[in-house]
Amino acid sequence: MLPSTEYVESVERTLDSKFTFNCHKDISCFNKCCQNTDMLLTPFDILRMKKRLGLSSTEFLKKYTYTHIDEQSSHPFAVLSMNEEEGGKCCFLTPEGCSIYEDRPANCRYYPVGKGLMIRDTTDGPAPVDFYFFIKQPACRGFDEGREWTIQEWRAAQGVDVYDEMNREWQEIQLRRDNPGKPKLDDNKQALMFMASYDGDQFRKFVFESGFLNLFELDKDEVEKMRTDDVALMKFGFKYLKFMLMLEETLKVKEEYRKEAKPAN
Ligand code: SF4
Ligand code: SF4
Predict the structure, then answer these.
(1) Which atom of ligand 1 is found nearest the CA of 107?
(2) Whose CA is nearest to atom 2 of ligand 1?
């Protein structure tokens, strides 16, 4: 899913896998990892960062990201922009480190660990299962010193649990839609997928200021919550994506519109 997999180790790891690592301000490579890197963003990353910066999601995306279309799946992803005028440094990097550290994206938190999701045979049949791997940037000296961690311990220390919980449904949508039998998304579907994934403020307008609410049978409490609650809106966005991408009948079109409103493939 990442645009660049150059430094990814091709060995699959588990939560119990161990590694030695330390990252601190006095290390010779301090801040090197936050330059010229392809940092793919998730829906919950955008919520956290736009809130911290007091921006709308539309403003945040315009100012700090670019869109990457995955060649294989044709899915659109937001990627953190690097500042070319500053030698490719992340826009949030300062000499003291990350200026949005408490709200840094999930992939920044995970580094030097990466996480993926794949369909595996389980006792309950085929199901999405997490897997892990190490990412070793050549300039990173963190592996040369420090304490031993398991991936489980690293996740807890970096606070990624809430990110994984919030993004899980979205990641499963990506996985379910990304297989050779599925047709490529056209420009319109890509734009809708991007909006429902990342641009919550635009998606809110789409829901409340178009004929959307008239078209579907929706739960009144859920609709009211979405007016002001960004997380509720994000979760509804995932529901909409499943419907729009024809993965599940998560939304019910009102009887009078049924013939004309079937989602096109
Ligand atoms: S958001 Fe922070 S941690 Fe992530 S690349 Fe930018 S400066 Fe580094
Ligand atoms: S390159 Fe590695 S050790 Fe150096 S600051 Fe980045 S994560 Fe830490």
Answers:
(1) 4
(2) 98
Alpha-carbon distance 192 to 240, whole Å?
10
Say how many Å lie between the CA of residue 57 and the centre of ligand 2: 29
Report the largest interatomic distance among the alpha carbons of the chain, rounded to a whole angstrom.
66
**pLDDT at residue number 201:** 97
Determine if residue 83 is left, alpha or beta; phi over 0 gives left, psi from -120 to 50 gives alpha, anything else beta. beta
Q: Give the atom of ligand 1 at the shortest distance from the alpha carbon of 37.
A: 5
Task: For ligand 1, pick from 91, 94, 100, 111 the residue to mutate: most ligand atoms within 8 Å of CB.
Answer: 100
In tens, the pLDDT along 57-103 reads 999 999 999 999 999 899 999 999 999 988 999 999 999 999 999 99
Hey, whose CA ends up nearest to atom 1 of ligand 2? 140
Q: What is the pLDDT of residues 175-206, one digit of tens each?
A: 988 877 788 999 999 999 999 999 999 999 99
**Which residue among 96, 107, 141 is best mutated to probe the pocket of ligand 2, counting the most ligand atoms within 8 A of its Cβ?**
141
Is the entire prediction scored with pTM above 0.85?
A: yes
Amino acid identity, residue 243? F
Backbone angles phi, psi at 147, to 5 degrees: -95, 165
The protein residue whose alpha carbon is closest to atom 5 in ligand 2 is 30
Place of tokens 């079109």: 253
Residues with CB under 6 A from ligand 2: 23, 27, 29-33, 111, 139-142
